[in-house]
Design brief:
Layout (H helix, E strand, L loop, with lengths): L4 E2 L2 E6 L2 E6 L8 E5 L4 E5 L4 E5 L2 E11 L3 E9 L3 E2 L6 E13 L12 E12 L4
Length: 130
């Protein structure tokens, strides 16, 4: 029987949102691509921020920064997924969180400093040799 390994490629979607995240690449670092009805962006290396938390790994990219208006980020909460190498992958469902933080010259406005929009993404987690 083959050994198990940790997934390093995640292909996820819900509606117009499509996300691909690879924790390793031939370039040496992570690659993250995000697409929705209006936006198509790719990120690599240090543009992909990783944070280990008790609920899983938080992977965050900045989708948009408009000075004196807002910063928009997108985060995935990914569990560790154990898979059989060279298999077609394991089905997973994970939350994707779009966070909008208002920014102004005058300082933060009253009220919440982050607004969240959460989508439940589903797709596959698999291990690929890079």
């Amino acid at each position: 029987m083959e050994g198990f390994t940790q997934a390093n490629l995640f292909e996820l979607s819900q509606g117009a949102i499509q996300v691909t995240y690879s924790s390793t690449s031939i370039l040496g670092g992570p690659i993250f691509s995000y697409r929705d009805g209006q936006l198509s962006r790719s990120f690599r290396g240090e543009e992909v921020r990783l944070l280990d938390t008790e609920i899983g790994q938080l992977i965050t990219v900045t989708l948009e920064t408009i000075p004196d208006l807002r910063t928009v980020t997108f985060s995935l909460v990914l569990p560790i997924v154990t898979v059989i190498p060279q298999s077609s992958g394991t089905c997973i469902k994970v939350p994707g969180i779009t966070t909008t933080a208002p920014t102004t010259i005058a300082g933060p406005p009253p009220g919440p400093q982050q607004l969240y929009s959460i989508v439940n993404l589903s797709g596959t987690a698999q291990f690929i040799v890079s």
